[in-house]
Structure formats: C-alpha cells, structure tokens
Amino acid sequence: xxxxxxxxxxxxxxxxxxxxxxxTGLDVHTVTVNTGGxxxxxxxxxxxxxxxxxxxSHTTVxxxxxxxxxxxxxxxxxxxxxxxxxxxxxxxERVVQAEALAGEAARLGATVVAHGSTGAGNxxxxxxNALRLLAAGAPGTPGQAVEVLAPIRSLGLSREDAAxxxxxxxxxxxxxxxxxxxxxxxxxxxxxxxxxxxxxxVLPEHAWPDTVAPERAPDDALVLRIAFEQGxxxxxxxxxxxxxxxxxxxxxxxxxxxxxxGVHVGDTILGIKGRVAFxxxxxxxxxxxxxxxxxxxxxxxxxxxxxxxxxxxxALVHEGQFFDPVCRDIEALLDSSQAxxxxxxxxxxxxxxxxxxxxTSPHSLFDAGVARYGESNALWDGRDAEGxxxxxxVQAGLAARAAxxxxxxxxxxxxTLSAEHLLAFx
Length: 426
Description:
The protein is α/β, with parallel strands linked by helices and 426 residues long. The chain folds into 3 domains: 2-185, HUPs (Rossmann fold, 3-Layer(aba) Sandwich), CATH 3.40.50; 190-360, Argininosuccinate synthetase, chain A, domain 2; 382-425. It has 15 helices and 14 strands. The strands form 3 sheets. It has a 5-stranded parallel beta sheet, sandwiched between helices. Strands 10-9-8-13-14 form a 5-stranded antiparallel beta sheet. A hairpin with a 2-residue loop joins strand 8 and strand 9 (232-236). The relative contact order is 0.12.
C-alpha cells in the first residue's frame, strides 16, 4: 500500500522518509509541490535526496501559477498584510500544496498521507484540515477517508533529534540545517531560528538568505514602473510578463537593493504568540503599488469596506480556512472591486527602502479639471462649503447637547444649550 509524503528536502521531511518506511512498512512516495523558491538544480537535488532516503517514487508538481490564480491574486486585490506587516508568505502555499498532495494520493490510490509539520506551528492545522477536506471529495461524490500522519509532531522531535536520527542511518545533515528553518516560496521567504523565539531577538546578517544588507545595497536607486490591468500586475517598465515571471523578476530586483526584510509578531492558530522573520520584496512592492493605484480609482466607501473584508480574508487564508465558502464570497467582492484598477505605478528601491512615487490611471478620480484642492474648483463655491460644514457637524452637536442636559439634570439645573449654541458646535 502506498503512503504519500509532502517532501521539501528539508530536515523534517527528510526524517520522515526513512522513519515512515521503518514504522509503517509502507512504500513512501514523495511529492514536492513547487510553489516558488526552487531552481531547476534545487528540484533535481530534492528528487535525488528523496530517492537516496528510500522513496519508492518522487513526483514534482509545478504549482506556481496555481498559487497565483487560487490565492495570491486575491491577496493583492485585498492589499493583505497580516498585522499591517506580513504578506502571508506561507499560508497560501499550503492551500495548493495540499491540493496537489491530495491529487497524487488519489492517483496512487493512497489512503495515508503525511507531512513534516511540528506540533507548535500553523502548518499542521493547515495541512490536516485541507487534506481531510479534499479527500472527502466534492459535494455529491463518495470521496474517501484518509489517515494523516505527522511524525515530527507525534514524536515531539527537536531539529537536533531529527538530525541525529538521520546521521545514525548514514545521511549527511548540514549543521546549518539545524540552526534555521527557511521556507522559500513565490510570495516570499520565512526564516525561523533562536532569535525569532525571543520577542526582541535580532537575526544575524548571515541568516538572511536572499536579500542584500541595506547598507551594502547599490548606491544608485532603482526606479520601476509597474503596470496593472484590473488589479493584476502585467508589466515591468513596459515589458509584458506573466504574473509568476513578474513576481520572480521583481523579487530579484528588490533583493539586490535590500528591499523586503521584516519581522512579524502575531497570534498562531493555536492561540500562542509567534514571531517570524521574512524576505518578501515582490509581495511588499506589489501590495504597496496596488494600494496606491486603488487610492486613485476607488471611492472612499469601496476602500473602507473592501479593507475590512480583506482583513477577514487574510485571516482565513492564514489560519487554514481557505476552503470555507465565505472565502468564495469575499473573492467575488474583491474581483468586482478590481474592474477599474488599471494603470501604472512608479516605485523606487534604495538602500532597503521601498517608496511609491506616484500612479496614473485612465480611471483616475483625481480630476484636477473640476475638483482642485484649494481655493477654486468647478464643483462648489464657498457658500456651499460653509453650509456643508454647518450640517456636517450637526450630529456631534446634538450629542453634546444631550450630554449637557444629562449633566445639568444631575446637578439639578436646566440645560442652557440653545439652538444657537448647537449651531456653534457645528
């Protein structure tokens, strides 16, 4: 009977191959779902490692475009940053990785699937929920029950324990592997280590895998034009690119200028506080640029209400609830909101700083011909503004009047706030 294992080639999933073979007696079939961060050489090395560890077969699934289509395009549309800082580098990957893993399990007829998550983080919840739901099949289909195994979690192993297990079986384990946990993906890279286990720990320079230290970045700034069509990034400096290529190109550009580093403190799904360092030059740039373009073309009400639902959507994706139907409802609103989010945004990279310089759009509401910010415009005159200002403050004045009446009643006096006073409040 086959067993399907999500395999990244890292320490934890490397441990799982020989351990699961020894403990279950099943053939372990490894699946690497490429959601970004792998070169062709990396993927070849991962496959070679899986075979050397004893995998019965190895499959690589390129899910980068699926990642964009399924999740990332909606995170851009929603300008989603968890805690106003973190662009959800990992949670979206787990959605398409679970889908690919479930697909391979169905193809092989496997009813046992495994992943290398620990018992402390969010990934265990994301994988467990998604795999069980996907195995159940679409509504109206029989589906099948699956057993989900997570050996690192069930054994409570430390990274040192996993490394010792592999070394005892003649498997080479780099010392660097046990120091930091690095997850590279299309939307960014996360880094965890001893420093992120403390609320004030500072990651050493050598722990940042891809970005140049800001002080060592080029002395000349890089200015870029990013084109969007209905909320989707389509070109850099006039060169049309598909979303995956654009993201990968932008990530390399930003990394070379020290752009995209950050540290996020937040609440895990299990309710404890967690801290993670990340590099996400493309994600942070696209979200900043897209947000500026939306300011130009969307109404105030659109921006306000969309932002509230975008936060909900980001939380659902991050917390392993992507398959809840409410996500489809929010995606429908996000898709509708992007109809006029077309234009160009100019950004600047310099010594680790990302600056949005400006935006243009054929749908711009910034119409200086009729609505200038200043003493003159074509939409109203001073008398209209004076009347509006008086009306605009009426409700606050009524509240003040009610508060004064209540205070006077408590003091045994009578309210002295007349209509004239009310007008003064407004």
